[in-house]
Write a structure and sequence with these properties.
single chain, mainly alpha, Four Helix Bundle (Hemerythrin (Met), subunit A), 2 domains, 76% helix
Length: 144
């Protein structure tokens, strides 16, 4: 009889400890940080000051909005393309649409940086080109 009581006590303690541990994990969990802000960084990186900062910030925000929409469309087009694997369907028009979407992404990116360059001094343009070059090589990944 005494053993049963001891086992019940041990089980009760373990259950309480487990509940306490789970509660501690959920209640003390730090909040997830949001995505890093993308807007408003370029003008400050280039050292642009004054009236042009607001203009570049608006351009940057609009560029990111447009690019996100095109990237979403790109993912959807690729999902559609890959869903047709093994169906012997002609995907030529879908592939052309993917290429057109990529060209549009390239165009809006070039146009954005070209317009930002109009607000830059000669030194800032050199810094902008260096930033673009660095970002381009980061996106490409390591060479093989």
């Amino acid at each position: 009889m005494e053993r049963k009581r001891l086992y019940k006590l041990i089980i009760a303690v373990l259950v309480i400890l487990n509940i306490g541990l789970v509660a501690f994990m959920f209640l003390s969990k730090p909040p997830h940080p949001g995505p890093p802000p993308h807007e408003g960084i370029l003008a400050r990186e280039l050292g642009i000051e004054g009236q042009y900062v607001a203009k570049i910030d608006v351009l940057e925000k609009e560029h990111h909005r447009e690019k996100q929409a095109l990237m979403k469309k790109d993912r959807e087009l690729h999902e559609t393309l890959f869903s047709k694997i093994g169906t012997d369907e002609d995907v030529t028009s879908l592939q052309a649409e993917i290429e057109k979407n990529h060209a549009q992404i390239e165009k809006i990116t070039y146009d954005f940086f070209n317009e930002v360059a109009m607000y830059c001094t000669k030194e800032q343009r050199a810094e902008l080109k260096e930033t673009i070059y660095h970002a381009f090589h980061q996106m490409r990944g390591p060479r093989r």
